[in-house]
Write a structure and sequence with these properties.
Helix content is 40%, strand content 19%. It has helices at residues 10-20, 34-43, 62-70, 89-98; strands at residues 2-6, 27-31, 50-54, 80-83. The longest helix is centred in the first third of the chain and has 11 residues, at 10-20. Pfam families: Response_reg (PF00072). Keywords: Phosphoprotein.
Amino acid sequence: MKILAVDDDESIRMLLENALTPSGNYDLTTAGSAKEVLETIDGASSTFDCFLVDIQMPDVNGIDLTKMIRQTPEYGHQPILMLTAMREKAYLDRAFMAG
């Protein structure tokens, strides 16, 4: 499974790599910003199967990034999982509405 994970916190990206990479079942690419995600998608030789997206990021938050990903024709239906420590229902509702 080809996964693209984005989090502005390098330690979270390393945690994801340590958790997902050793099994050999996942081809994990990480990014530190929404801009980097969009550049990675644009330059990818094949589509990603799944996205892991941090909600709270500077510049473009994860909810807005999800909307951008969904506007890309080949990513209209791929699973997008939001990563967050936030518990406020309003954020969760916005994340679900974004796709």
